[in-house]
Amino acid sequence: MSGESSPEGHGGGWNAPGEEPPAAAPYSAVAHGREGSAPGPVAGLPSGRPGALPDGRPAGAPTARARARTWPFLASELSVMFRRRRTWAMLAALAAVPVLIAVAVRVTGAGSGGEGPAFLDRITHNGLFVVLTALVLCTPLFLPLTVGVVSGDTLAGEAGLGTLRYLLAAPAGRARLLLVKYVGTAVFCAAATSAVLLAGTVAGLALFPSGPVPLLSGDLVDVWTAEGRIVLVGAYVFVSLLGLAAVGLFISTLTDVPVGAMAATVVLAIAAQVLDALPQLDWLHPWLFSHWWLGFADLLRQPVEWTSFGNNAVLQLGYVLVFGALAYGRFATKDVLS
Q1: In total, how many domains does the chain have?
Q2: Whole-angstrom Cα distance, residue 19 to residue 10?
Q3: Contact, 153 vs 252, CB < 8 A?
Q4: Are residues 206 and 290 in the same domain?
């Protein structure tokens, strides 16, 4: 109607009755955050670059503000993880393993007969071997068990609680959500390994004597050098868990039932070790993510032999890349209804 005023979005004014609205200046719908319109040229940019942003970045490229939102998102994820009683219960259970080993050897006086796990017979002579004995026990079973629980719960747990779609409704993006979930799992891997290292060191030094430590090569090193080697072994174990964490993340994208994702991840960890123990499948062994899990003995020689560390790191990196890509491919096309 000619007697009515019509709102004009350009400048927020109203047109006088009967007056034609002014022609709108060309603009980029992408640069102005308007979806559903074809992007047009932006003033000041050369032709042939429709939809480019004023600073020269292509439309849709991540901004500094978008990248900055990743850190609060990660901090929130870590805060939620480490506020759960389940997380602290698993860390306490891992820390209890070296303590139980130290107490059992101290009370019974056993461990000098050459039986049991590696390094067990050396605990009574030097308490630092408590840590190494605990890592030999925890790496094949207890650490994969806890990592399987955490990685399997990353996305399936959110879907089971009905919070996954709300995370995606926030300006997070699926790729960023996957990255944050994996980094959170990797932080737990570091915390789990550190729990064994710290508890084993404290229990060993509290209950047994300490002094120069004999390495597997027969050389003696002082306590601080030995502690450095133990930290290096801890880094080796941490790297060993990264491939399993990526597998668990991928499995977590396949289901909305967190218990199923956790169980599947743990079963795969056990199955990989069973396959690695079969000599008939020696052609498969170098491709199993668990193949180098107990290869940290080379770090306890003089000089340090880095071959196993390098092979393990390359293998775990391959699993991270492959299963990270599979997780993204699955999650990017998944209809999130919960």
Answers
A1: 2
A2: 15
A3: yes
A4: yes
Taking CB atoms within 8 Å and a gap of at least 24, the contacts of 304-311 are 304/229, 304/232, 309/236, 309/239
Indicate if 50 and 174 belong to the same structural domain.
no
Which amino acid is it at 294?
Answer: L
Residues 23 and 167 in one domain: no
Q: Higher-confidence residue: 265 or 172?
A: 265
**Residue 338 within any structural domain of the chain:** no
Q: Is residue 36 part of a domain?
A: yes
Q: Are residues 9 and 73 in the same domain?
A: no
Q: Which residues are CB-neighbours of 129 under 8 A, at least 6 positions away?
A: 119, 120, 122, 123, 204, 213
pTM: 0.78
Query: What's the rounded Cα separation, in Å, for the pair 186 and 274?
Result: 25
Q: Hey, what are 98's tokens?
A: 């070296």
Taking CA atoms, 55 is separated from 58, 68, 312, in Å, by 9, 18, 43
Within a domain: 87: yes
pLDDT in tens, 141-194: 999 999 999 999 999 988 888 778 777 776 667 888 899 999 999 999 999 999
Same domain, residue pair 39 and 77: no
pLDDT, tens digit (0-9, with 9 covering 90-100), for 287-324: 999 999 999 999 999 899 899 999 999 999 999 999 99
3-state helix, strand, coil in the chain (%, to 5): 60, 0, 40
Distances (CA, A) of 312 to 148, 157, 229, 242: 19, 30, 17, 10
